[in-house]
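thought: user wants a sequence for this fold. calling inverse folding tool.
action: design(structure=
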């Protein structure tokens, strides 16, 4: 059986970022809730509250919800309208298909002056003679009853006939209460008998059936304590038990019964028992699967696609990154997806099932990003590639040493060669140093050559030496 807990409310408050104190709308339908509790303390700002299709037997703990406008309690086990006086802003109340037999309890809604719509169809009180006239005359603020608008003439007629209608309703209500008390006592008696029967079946020897089986067994041998014998397995027992369960189930559903709160609870208990039996049977048949290997013993990552999802891997050379597009289910909650990016592989866990893919290049895990597509729901993981390739540990020192050795050998070869300076002016041209500094350069002066003085034969100091060749 379900109960209203803080975790339950937070799970149903995703539209409000799981914040419950400022929650304005809450839906707790089909949760098998038996009692209304905690809502008036945790969610004081509620305006809309859905509690249909549960097992709530009494209206309680909602009087502090001053802002509540719409309360839906359809398909529950409510037998009386009560404890709604504090809901000052209530405008619509839905009590469809409950067990309200005290029609006079609608008088407690007179203080809810803003109440405009009321639904009581499907309740025992809706079958009373004068039911509609009684409600229309009692709740003058109502505008709609069971989805039908209340005309002004209808209200006037109901007020005129109210004394006689009230007397009829009181008599029918009294008869219903007596009949309901008998049905309740009968249901309690049957419940006690079923509990006693279950206790007898739980203890061997109480029926006499198990005693006969025990007596038929042979006495244990002397060495049975030291060497216990394996029990004999009868093949027909499981099939016989299965047939008995099917027969009991058919008998339960074919048994006629009244539609009462007790019958609803009994049906729920029967379905709960069937569900637990199936879970036990499935646990016995379930084989524990060995954990899937993702990393080998030598540290090599494997490609795994256990969730069987379509994917595409793209190498974006323009942005220097690798993009993984994983086609996860469109309406899956993102909290069920876990992404782990490593330098050489990426792992995505979808609902506990791993998807692992080895990457073609080294990536940067710290700079990677993952996001969901708003149109398709796909998971897109962007992983930037590293600038330089990082090699393995054992090979790194070898590559470094080889690089240093090659550089040293190259330097030695250059030192052995004799370098010569080229001075051929045809191959190289040198700048004019005189023209580096700009300015007016003085024009070159012409120096007249001095006339050569030729000795003459008539000169007194002339000596003609035949050894000396003549001047040209």
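)
observation: tool returned 472 residues.
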């Amino acid at each position: 059986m379900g109960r209203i807990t803080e975790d339950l409310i937070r799970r149903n408050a995703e539209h409000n970022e799981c914040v419950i104190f400022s929650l304005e709308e809450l839906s707790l339908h089909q949760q098998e809730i038996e009692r209304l509790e905690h809502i008036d303390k945790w969610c004081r700002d509620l305006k809309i509250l859905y509690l249909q299709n549960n097992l709530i037997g009494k209206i309680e703990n909602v009087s502090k919800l001053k802002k509540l406008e719409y309360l839906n309690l359809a398909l529950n086990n409510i037998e009386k309208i009560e404890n709604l006086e504090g809901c000052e802003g209530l405008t619509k109340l839905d009590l469809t298909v409950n067990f309200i037999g005290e029609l006079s309890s609608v008088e407690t809604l007179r203080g809810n002056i803003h109440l405009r719509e009321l639904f009581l169809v499907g309740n025992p009180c809706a079958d009373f003679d004068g039911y509609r006239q009684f409600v229309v005359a009692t709740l003058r603020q109502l505008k709609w009853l069971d989805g039908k608008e209340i005309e002004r003439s209808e209200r006037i007629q109901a007020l005129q006939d109210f004394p006689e209608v009230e007397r009829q309703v009181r008599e029918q209500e009294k008869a219903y209460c007596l009949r309901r008390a008998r049905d309740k006592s009968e249901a309690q008696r049957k419940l006690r008998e079923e509990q006693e029967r279950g206790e007898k079946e739980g203890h061997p020897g109480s029926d006499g059936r198990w005693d006969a089986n025990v007596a038929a067994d042979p006495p244990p041998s002397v060495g049975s304590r030291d060497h216990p014998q394996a029990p004999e397995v009868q093949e027909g027992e499981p099939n016989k038990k299965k047939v008995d369960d099917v027969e009991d189930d058919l008998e339960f559903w074919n048994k006629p019964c009244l539609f009462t709160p007790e019958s609803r609870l009994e049906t729920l208990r029967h379905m709960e028992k069937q569900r637990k039996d199936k879970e036990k049977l499935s646990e016995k048949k379930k084989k524990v699967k060995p954990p899937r290997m993702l990393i080998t013993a030598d540290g090599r990552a494997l490609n795994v696609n256990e969730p069987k999802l379509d994917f595409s891997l793209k190498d974006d050379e323009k942005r220097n990154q690798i993009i993984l597009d994983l086609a996860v289910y469109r309406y899956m909650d993102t909290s069920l997806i876990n992404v782990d990016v490593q330098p050489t592989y990426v792992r995505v866990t979808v609902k506990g099932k791993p998807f692992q893919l080895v990457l073609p290049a080294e990536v940067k895990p710290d700079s990677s990003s993952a996001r969901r597509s708003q149109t398709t729901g796909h998971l897109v993981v962007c992983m930037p590639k590293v600038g330089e390739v990082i090699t393995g540990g054992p090979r790194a020192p070898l590559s470094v040493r080889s690089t240093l050795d090659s550089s040293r050998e190259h330097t030695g070869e250059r030192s052995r060669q004799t370098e010569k300076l080229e001075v051929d002016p045809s191959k190289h041209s040198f700048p004019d140093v005189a023209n580096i500094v700009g300015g007016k350069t003085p024009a070159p002066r012409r120096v007249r050559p001095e006339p050569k003085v030729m000795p003459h034969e008539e000169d007194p100091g002339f000596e003609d030496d035949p050894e000396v060749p003549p001047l040209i």
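thought: summarizing for user.
answer: Here is the designed sequence. The first strand starts at residue 25 and ends at 27.
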